[in-house]
C-alpha cells in the first residue's frame, strides 16, 4: 500500500510541472511576439514532446497511485481528460490555438492532481 505522503508528493510535483507548462506556454507566446528567435527556441516541438511525455509519465504514476491509495476513479478520469486535451493540442498547427488548448489541458490535469491529493488526505 502506498502512503499518503508519497501520493501527495507526486501530485504536488505533477501540479508544479503543470504550472511550469502553463508558464512556458505564456512565456513562449509573449516571446514569439517580441523576439522571433528566442520564441522559436522555446516554441520548438521537441520541448512540447518532452513536456507531454513527462506529464504522461508523472501523471500516470501519481494518479494511478491515488486510485490505489483512496480508491476513487474521478481524479484519474479528470487528469486523463487533461492529458488527452494536451495530446490533442499537439496535433494542431503550431500557433495560438495549440497554445490555448494546451493551457486548457494543463489546467484540467492540474485539477485532477489536486482532486487526487485531496482524496488521499
Describe this structure as you would to a colleague.
- With 121 residues, the chain is mainly alpha-helical.
- It has one domain (4-120).
- The protein is 87% helix and 0% strand.
- The chain contains five helices and no strands.
- The chain has helices at residues 4-34, 36-42, 45-70, 74-89, 96-120.
- The longest helix has 31 residues, at 4-34.
- It is elongated.
- It starts with a helix and ends with a helix.
- The model has no long low-confidence stretch (mean pLDDT 82).
Put the structure in a nutshell.
The protein has 5 helices and no strands.
Mean pLDDT: 82
Number of strands: 0
Strand percentage lies at under 5%
Shape: elongated
The radius of gyration is: 15 Å
Element order: H for helix, E for strand: HHHHH
As residue ranges, the low-confidence spans are none
Q: Can you summarize the main beta sheet?
A: none
Could you estimate the helical fraction of the residues in percent?
Answer: over 70%
What structural category arises from helix and sheet content? mainly alpha
Distance between the termini: 15 Å
Number of helices: 5
Amino acid at each position: 500500500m502506498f502512503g499518503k505522503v508519497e501520493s501527495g508528493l507526486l501530485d504536488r510535483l505533477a501540479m508544479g510541472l503543470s504550472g511550469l507548462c502553463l508558464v512556458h506556454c505564456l512565456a513562449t507566446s509573449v516571446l514569439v511576439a517580441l523576439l522571433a528567435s528566442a520564441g522559436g527556441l522555446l516554441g520548438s516541438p521537441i520541448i512540447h514532446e518532452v513536456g507531454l511525455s513527462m506529464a504522461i509519465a508523472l501523471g500516470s504514476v501519481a494518479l494511478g497511485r491515488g486510485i490505489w491509495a483512496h480508491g476513487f476513479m474521478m481524479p484519474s478520469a479528470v487528469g486523463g481528460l487533461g492529458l488527452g486535451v494536451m495530446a490533442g493540442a499537439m496535433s494542431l498547427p503550431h500557433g495560438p490555438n495549440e497554445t490555448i488548448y494546451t493551457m486548457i489541458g494543463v489546467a484540467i490535469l492540474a485539477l485532477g492532481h489536486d482532486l487526487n491529493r485531496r482524496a488521499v488526505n
